[in-house]
Amino acid sequence: MDHETNNAAVENPKVTLRDRLRKFGPGIVAVLSMMGAGDLVTASVSGSSYGYNLMWLLALSLVVRFVIVNLMGRYQVLNTKGQTIVEGYRDVSKYFPWFIGIAILISGHLLNAYMITGAGEALTWIFGIGQPFLWSCVVVLVSLFVIGRNVYTTIEKLLKLFLVLMTIAFLGLAIYSVPDVGGIVKATVGFSIPENTGTFGVFAVALSLIGAVAGSMANFLYPYFVKDKGWTGVGYKKTQRNDILFGICAAIVINLAVWVVGAELLAPNNISVDSLEDISRALSLHLGDFGALVFYIGAFGILYSSVIGFANGFPKVVIDCLHIVRPARRERFGRKFEDDPWFKWVSLFILISPIIWSVPGMPGFVEMAVFVTGLQAVVVPIVAVGLLILVNKRSHLGEHKANVVENVVLFLTTALAIWVSVEVVLGWF
């Protein structure tokens, strides 16, 4: 079926809402890969340490994520040159493919480091036997089987199942905790900065929120999943936008639910979040082992979805960067990234090398999550400036270039990231 026929199908007014929801996939796969432990930890740490006071930053970060990822997806669908997002960045500066490729490789290793560690801890509690390191090894072995098939649709179906499990688990826990709706609304629009009262400083938490939600290099995964889906042309513009909007809305529900648990259950019990066990402890006090089990199932869903999402998606970005700086490889292996032998090795590196961080005695899961997600925020200004230039190129996007609101969001994101980074650095002295 050619693109004209596909486009006509997308625009057919007889297509029902259920049919449209069934078409969604890249947004779910990308958002669940993006969420990971960063959202789980920063939301619970923020809620337990500062109540609802920083919830406005979470809301802002998720809005920023939608704008950034939607623009990236739109570029993949609508750019007039048939480029990938990294090829577009190359047109902004020849150094971007080098920067993005190296940053993605490092991010893939560090992000999967605490995803795999956390997944091992979750399975240890769920099954009640063995050690976290051994379960982390099991996670890697199972992931090798899933990733080895190189089937996007298989991963999409698996992550849709995880989305259902996570939503039920965390939303149920949040409803049980009886959230303060008035406090949530006030904190979301209040833009207040509380005093340092938690284990992690307020600006460290803020930086971690920006890094985990708005500034993650995982945002680059979405346009490649869109490419795998085969969405190309103006007929897919609304489908792509609604796809990522649906994924972001799911992330909002899960993030707010975890935050509510932190604010309503962890904070009143004076439980600071230093491990997954700390989060489950408050749930055990109220719901017994059942509450902890529900949490760990949801936590495993978040963590494992990120593990396989990263191992499948990040190598695509790295190989794309490699082909841009070494055009001879693209001529030799074509535009399907999986056909390049290096794809397999990059995937194995991102999946296997992080296991060293699960060895007993290495830094704790929560400590690593806050540090790594905060570290990612450093790249926000660079990525945002490049995207700001790219999506305003009429030569690349024509009438579909960024609008005023999107440009304002990109500009303010850069300014906010710089401001928070400076505050963290000043806090070290």
What this model shows, in words?
It is a single chain. α6 runs antiparallel to α13 and α13 runs antiparallel to α15. The chain is 77% helix and 0% strand. The chain contains 19 helices and no strands. The longest helix is centred in the last third of the chain and has 50 residues. The N terminus is likely disordered. With 429 residues, the chain is mainly alpha-helical.
Provide keyphrases for this structure:
429 residues; 19 helices; disordered N terminus
Q: How much of the residues is beta strand, in percent?
A: under 5%
Number of helices: 19
- Report the biggest beta sheet as strand number plus sense, adding barrel if it closes: none
Instruction: Give the tally of β-strands.
Output: 0
Helix content: over 70%
Mean pLDDT across residues: 78
Low-confidence stretches: 1-13, 196-200
Topology order in helix (H) and strand (E) letters: HHHHHHHHHHHHHHHHHHH
Rounded Rg: 21 Å
Structural class: mainly alpha
Distance, first to last CA: 62 Å
Shape: globular
In short:
With 429 residues, the chain is mainly α. It has 19 helices and no strands. Helix 3 (26-50) runs antiparallel to helix 10 (202-214), helix 6 (96-127) runs antiparallel to helix 16 (365-376) and helix 12 (237-266) packs antiparallel against helix 13.
